[in-house]
Amino acid sequence: KQAEKAVHQKKEQSKNKCRKARRRHINLVAEFNRRQRKNIWLETHIWHAKRFHMVKKWGYCLGDSPTEKSYRACYRAMTKHCLLQDLSYYCCLELTGKENELLKQLARICSNDTGLTFEATCCLSGRFEGSLNLYRADRYPEDMLGPVTFIWKPRDGSENRQLWIWMHPALKQDILRELKAIFQCSEPEEIYIPEPVTTSVQEEKQIDVALSLGKKRKKEDDDGEKAVPVKKIIGDGTRDPFQSYSWISQATGIVISDRTMEILRYRLIGPLSHSVLTETLKAASLQTV
Question: What's a single GO BP term from this record (predicted)?
């Protein structure tokens, strides 16, 4: 009886191990959501997991070192071709408001003695990215918060500007707290209500439906997948999903938004980096309203 039971279980398991079914988009996304409940994955996680030793840091699961001796290949790519690094785990804070008000308050957490600031002409135009060290308000040269990079959105004729500040996840909470203090942003503009993480029972139902659709591969198969949508869950390892992600100041009108994991960030190194970008990205046609 035990042997028959084992054979029966093996047959049931084999039904779910069909590679064609497992590789379908609906099943890949469900598996992606299920396996990142404890540590947030980057979009390139699966690629790295197959080739790197993974480490758990700052709430994320990141590739640390390659499983093979690929140092020469990386060096060759950096010096002759192009090497891409996924820096999406870096945190992004977006500031929106009047340019004068933004510059007035940001001047309190940096200093001209350390180099270019948020007011630098080349950076203020939005053409170049800047970098500097942030300090607690009016405390320079003491109480340094840490290094950040920033980029302004180019002017569009409005007095309101957008500024994106990038920082290491270990520095995010301190910098966010200081920005909320200097801009007096205390009230949440929006309450983030996350979609419930798919439970194992729901995942099984979705996979069962996908498998049943996979048995009849007809033209209506695509419509079947749309009928059972599964959204990829991209979380933030530095924030509780039930916390607000945007704050507004009633006094200054400044809005601070947490764009971590909403804006991906990649670093390209090598002499052919520009060529790779021009071949990969195609400029959209200019549309006027």
Answer: tRNA 5'-leader removal
The mean predicted confidence, pLDDT, of the chain is 78
Query: How many domains, in total, are found in the chain?
Result: 2
Please check the confidence at residue 88 and state whether its pLDDT lies above 70.
yes
Domain termination residue (choose one: 68, 83, 107): 68
Give the pLDDT mean for 218-238.
Answer: 49
Residues 121 and 179 in one domain: yes
| Boundaries of domain holding 47 | 19-68
CA distance 30 to 205: 11
For the stretch 148-204, pLDDT in tens is 999 999 988 888 899 999 999 999 999 999 999 999 887 675 544 444 444 445 544
Q: What is the DSSP string of 57-117?
A: ETTEEEEEEESS--HHHHHHHHHHS-EEEE-TTSEEEEEEEEHHHHHHHHGGG--GGGS--
Residue 58 belongs to some domain of the structure = yes
State the pairing for strand pair 91-98/266-269.
unpaired
Q: How far does CA 165 lie from the centroid of its chain?
A: 14
Neighbours of 165 (CB within 10 A): 24
Residue 30, token pair as written in the block: 């469900």
The H or E element containing residue 146 is strand 144-152
Residues 55 and 169 placed together within one structural domain of the fold: no
* Pair 96, 55 in one domain: no
